[in-house]
Amino acid sequence: MDASLIKKLKDMTNAGLMDCKKALEASNENIDEAVKWLREKGISKAAKKADRIAAEGSSLVMVDGNNAVIVELNCETDFVSANEKFTNLLEKIAKTIINSDAKTVEEALELKTDEGTLNDDIINVTATMGEKISLRRFTKVTKAEGEVFGKYIHMGGKISALCLVEGTDEAVANDVAMHLAAMNPKYVSRDVVPGSVIEEESKVLKEQAINEGKPADIAEKMVQGRINKYYKDIVITEQEFVKNPDVTVGTYLKNNNSTLKDMIRYEVGEGIEKKEENFAEEVAKQING
């Protein structure tokens, strides 16, 4: 097939290269028919939303036997994220990914479904809902003998947490997942905190102490105490347990003969720069356009 024809169709519709190729194949390389094919499939309409910012949405944790997956699906507004079509799509994505070999979003989008691929499912819902919808990320975890999954979903999926705990029952693991969702620690233990993180924090803390008027040698001694407090902010096992602040999460696990092996926390939209809407400009666009 002539690559220039694919490019021409892409420029006309803003659809993806593979979708343009499929459209041309389905229409015997008749570009007008290919445009129509893309419109009928909702792809052209969906592609035009590709440059919009989708920072809302929902997340989900799903467990199936020895496998678990945590998924974030984005859209543009809370209204759409609460829609049944969107929530059904999120569940379908999780079910499709959980027992697959997909390791990246790109691989997941090519997984087969009853509508073609996961990408086709997303395109169809995008066309129906009128908003950009995108699979942002997922993490799969497989448990071994003697391990259990803990899961917690907060605010209807705005925050989801998945834990892998060894030597305990599901209730304990779920408690740890709830703590993870609430307190957002970054690391399982001190051992896995990168040295560069502590080094940078130590520099900041020393500078703070010097700015408080402390001599350099005293400031150096103060840093260690403050670093210990910093560990409590970022390490889950050193944090006060949300259900019982008299013990740390580490103590709670130890009391239940358990060890936290892994944890993943998704907060919808974290790290995505949201577009600041200027209402006056939007009104002017509507009047002039």
How would you describe this structure in keywords?
289 residues, 10 strands, Helicase, Ruva Protein, domain 3, alpha+beta, three-stranded antiparallel sheet
What does this structure look like?
This protein is α+β, with helices and mostly antiparallel strands and 289 residues long. Among the domains are: 3-47, Ubiquitin-associated (UBA) domain (Helicase, Ruva Protein, domain 3); 52-142, 2-Layer Sandwich (Tetrahydropterin Synthase, Chain A). The protein contains 13 helices and ten strands. A hairpin with a 2-residue loop joins strand 8 (240-241) and strand 9 (244-248).
Strands ordered across the widest β-sheet: 1-2-5
Largest sheet, if any? 3 strands, antiparallel
Euclidean distance between termini CA atoms: 39 Å
Indicate the CATH class of the domain at 52-142.
Alpha Beta
* Count, helices: 13
Q: What is the name of the CATH superfamily of the domain at 52-142? A: Elongation factor Ts, dimerisation domain
Specify the helix fraction band. Answer: 40-55%
Proportion of beta-strand residues: 15-25%
Architecture per CATH nomenclature, i.e. the level-2 architecture of the domain at 52-142: 2-Layer Sandwich
Shape: elongated
Number of strands: 10
Average pLDDT works out at: 89
Parts with pLDDT < 50 across at least 5 consecutive residues = none
- Order of helical and strand elements: HHHHEEHHHEEHEEEHHHEEHEH
Which class of secondary structure composition applies to the elements? Answer: alpha+beta
CATH topology of the domain at 52-142: Tetrahydropterin Synthase, Chain A
